[in-house]
Amino acid sequence: MLQHAPRALYIHIPFCTNKCHYCDFTSYVLKGQPVDEYLDALEREMERTVELLPPEEIHTVFVGGGTPTVLTPPQMERFLASVKRYFPIHPKAEFTMEANPGTTDPDKLAAMRAGGVNRISFGVQSFDNVLLERIGRIHNVDDVYRSIENAREAGFDNLSIDLMFGLPGQTVELLADSVNRALTLGLTHYSLYGLKVEENTLFHVLYERNELPLPPEDDELAMYMLLIDQLKAAGYEHYEISNFAKPGYESRHNSTYWRNEPYYGLGAGAHGYASGERHVNVKGIQPFIDASLSRLPRLETNAVSEQEAMEDFMMVGLRLLQGVCEADFGKQFNGRTIKEVFGQPLDRLLKEGLLEETDTLPGGGYRLSAKGIPLGNEVFGAFIGSE
């Protein structure tokens, strides 16, 4: 397996103003948390990480959470300075930070700009205040407009928002209204996710009690297809199952994951992939801080076999609408071909019309068909455990 030093860096800031009803991420309510001690621990992890695996130039940085923008301006300045101290950031790197509407005042945004952030991804989820309250968000629609305006005034022009569909009590009409409002903002990027009811969330408790009024499956599919139609009609390229962008504004960092390339993963609960190994970090705040005092704060590290890496390549690569590329596969896996390794599932999916061959990629390749796009999970699963 071909592996170079990661050119992508993910850092997790696990603090939030509150816990949303659907969220199972490693995140903790901010009040009373040892934020400065956590930032100390992150610096120690950065130092040990670059000693173990010296970085080349970093082309993409993604600061996720949690809500990284709950850091105060001085904490933000300190954190971003530490990133630049340990990692050589390319002058034209994409540097994304997740934000919650209402947590980005002008001082915070100025600290972000000065620290190198050049792309913000806002967790909007809906333009319906009733739905926002129902899913446990603490911002409202006015906060969204104000936050976007503040970001633009601070000099940010690469802005993305997340929207969710399949929410309790959401209808196709309500979603269409949210998307129309989102499009009036004229942003460069939109991410659109269907609700998944995860364990260890309030929604899971309600679901188990039959108290979560989710839309029927047919409506959820209609919502997804409506999103595709509205965004494409507005001039956005549907470049990944859940993501739409103006040309040239595709998420370069997330493309690292979809191309199965290595990345550094730092912070509580963060995942990383480098030197043929995947790791996940210690999750709790204090356990992470304690672990960082004496070692890399890893919870577990697993070697990735070539077969597993090839399966991952197909599973994440087919999320991209351009598909998976024979030349890239050969480069990563010693000249092997997709057809040679995955002949059986490929033949079946081509026959069923869920995949199609494409000659727009070097050496050719395979991509989801129009029929396969809404059935993506079924397609991806076909490559797991197939020898």
TrEMBL record:
The keyword S-adenosyl-L-methionine is assigned to this record: yes
InterPro entries noted in UniProt: Aldolase_TIM (IPR013785), Coproporphyrinogen-III_oxidase (IPR034505), Elp3/MiaA/NifB-like_rSAM (IPR006638), HemN_C (IPR010723), HemW-like (IPR004559), rSAM (IPR007197), rSAM_sf (IPR058240)
The keyword 4Fe-4S appears for this protein: yes
UniProt keyword list: 4Fe-4S, Chaperone, Cytoplasm, Heme, Iron, Iron-sulfur, Metal-binding, S-adenosyl-L-methionine
SMART domains: Elp3 (SM00729)
Domain Radical SAM core residues, every copy: 1-237
Localization terms from the record: Cytoplasm
Main localization category: cytoplasm
Function recorded in the entry: Probably acts as a heme chaperone, transferring heme to an unknown acceptor. Binds one molecule of heme per monomer, possibly covalently. Binds 1 [4Fe-4S] cluster. The cluster is coordinated with 3 cysteines and an exchangeable S-adenosyl-L-methionine.
Similarity comment: Belongs to the anaerobic coproporphyrinogen-III oxidase family. HemW subfamily.
UniProt-recorded name of the protein: Heme chaperone HemW
Native organism taxonomy: Bacteria, Bacillati, Bacillota, Bacilli, Bacillales
